[in-house]
Design goal:
alpha/beta, D-Maltodextrin-Binding Protein, domain 2, globular
């Protein structure tokens, strides 16, 4: 198991640290009976990260839902974060997905201030979290079992890591601390990649960390981490699916077809897909995470209706404003870049 963990972490580290090329035709096999011949499909370029939160893309491709709408999704691996948004806004991707955070808010505000259309539109949630969350607050197993750190309040004055500043995970940490009776200023926040967290906890260079799946389950399997808090949010959406606005305007039927297929995939997953052996095999194929780990890991959730949590986005906006990370004053007009209104 230790060798398996090291191999998996090395693979994921490579994907996260660099925007990979490779087999961009992965998952775009002949759709056969579900979608006709490849020649009948229109190619759509989609930026993605091979993580479980992107499960609707993988399921929709393999089960032919996108092909049924005349779409041939061409997945292109990317590191994610702000780069995913920038690539989609620039038209290098027709569709992207990623965190709802500082880069998205500031990019939308810049366009609005200039009197321009926001070049992207958030059209659906990528996932939401509910207890037990897929990105819990963890500590080292050794320090937990010694009694040194057994409650969130024990972290006061200590060093806690996130994997990316200005992203939803930073807001997640704020919520975890708040639920445990601490303020954000009660800890020192540092940046450590997910794959480096277990070692950093072990050598005490950090005292706790926000750690996403499957790293949490793998860390527990190897006796390195212990979950400290996993119930601090319920229904919040840290991520979204967005498309390039110009592409959607020029291809309205394709855009609507994509959204229908995407939500069909979500419904498939939320109607027992996460327990279905065939679906789990699809997820293993695209993420290289073993089925056994997927089955035991805390999974992401989604809304088959595709409703966006506007109140949650407002809370994030206020939090990031408090950190001084936003480039604008006041509240954004979300109707300018969200496919819904308050």
């Amino acid at each position: 198991m230790k060798r398996l963990m090291l191999a998996l972490l090395a693979m994921v580290a490579m994907l996260v640290v660099t925007a990979c090329g490779g087999d961009d035709d992965e998952g775009t096999d002949d759709p056969g009976e579900n979608g006709g011949t490849p020649e009948a499909l229109t190619s759509v370029k989609v930026g993605y990260i091979p993580f479980l939160i992107d499960a609707p893309f993988f399921v929709g491709i393999e089960k032919g839902y996108f092909a049924e709408e005349g779409l041939d999704l061409k997945l292109e691996r990317i590191a994610g974060g702000a780069d995913m948004l920038l690539q989609t806004a620039a038209g290098n991707f027709d569709i992207g997905s990623g965190g709802i955070g500082v880069s998205l808010f500031n990019a939308a505000a810049t366009a609005i201030k200039a009197g321009q259309d926001v070049p992207f539109e958030v059209v659906a949630p990528l996932h939401h979290e509910q207890p037990p969350v897929a990105t819990p607050l963890v500590v080292s197993k050794e320090r937990f079992e010694s009694g040194e750190i057994t409650r969130v309040s024990d972290l006061k004055g200590k060093k806690v890591s996130i994997n990316a500043p200005g992203a939803s995970i930073e807001y997640w940490l704020y919520r975890a601390l708040k639920a445990g009776g601490l303020s954000y200023k009660d800890v020192t926040v540092v940046t450590v990649s997910f794959q480096e967290v277990p070692a950093a906890l072990k050598n005490k260079s950090i005292d706790a960390a926000m750690l996403g799946e499957p790293f949490t389950t793998l860390g527990e399997d190897n006796g390195l981490v212990r979950v400290l808090s996993e119930d601090f949010v319920n229904g919040d959406q840290p991520t979204g699916v967005y498309w390039n606005r110009d592409w959607a305007k020029k291809n309205p039927k394709l855009a609507e077809g994509f959204l229908r297929a995407y939500l069909k995939s979500v419904k498939d997953l939320e109607s027992g897909g996460w327990e279905d052996p065939a679906t789990l095999a699809i997820l293993e194929k695209y993420t290289s995470v073993p089925v056994d780990v997927i089955k035991r890991a805390s999974r992401p959730y989604n809304d088959p209706e595709g409703k966006l949590n506007i109140a949650g986005f407002r809370d994030q906006e206020a939090f990031f404003r408090g950190l001084g990370l936003l480039t604008y004053e006041g509240e954004l007009d979300f109707s300018k870049f969200l496919r819904t209104s308050e």
